[in-house]
Write a structure and sequence with these properties.
By secondary structure, the protein is mainly α. It has helices spanning about 1-35, 45-55, 75, 80-85, 90-95, 100-105, 120-130. α2 (about 45-55) packs across α7. The chain starts with a helix and ends with a helix.
């Protein structure tokens, strides 16, 4: 009888430890998961924002308007470079960045800092749209 009680206690302890371990793992994953996920951008929201804020100066083809045409821009420039440019074009133009210096040389007008580009979500939306061009 005593052996049976001991086996039952061990079994209950094992089950309790398993349950605790599973709960702990899920809690840790729940806390860490947001770190590994990030907003990827919404192409349609990017197109809408582009039409409101960018279309006045940029074409979605290779044709120049006021600024350069943006067809294949995500193939010509890294996403990191585009993000920095969208955040503060003037800052990049005033740096020794060779791409920015070429743009400065070829275009008379400087792209303004667009307040909507201060948010990660808007930049990612625009970039997702630019990837489709």
């Amino acid at each position: 009888m005593n052996k049976l009680k001991i086996k039952l206690k061990k079994s209950k302890l094992r089950n309790s430890l398993r349950t605790f371990s599973l709960i702990l793992i899920f809690d840790i994953l729940f806390l860490i998961f947001p770190i590994f996920t990030s907003y990827a951008g919404d192409e349609s929201a990017g197109e809408e924002l582009f039409n409101k804020k960018c279309r006045q100066c940029h074409k979605t083809t290779e044709q120049v308007l006021i600024g350069p045409g943006l067809k294949d821009v995500t193939k010509r420039r890294s996403i990191e470079w585009i993000e920095k440019w969208l955040i503060d074009p003037k800052k990049i133009l005033n740096s020794d960045d060779p791409i920015a210096q070429e743009l400065k040389k070829n275009f008379k007008r400087i792209m303004p800092k667009i307040p909507e580009m201060s948010t990660d979500e808007n930049r990612k939306d625009i970039i997702e749209y630019l990837k489709t061009l």
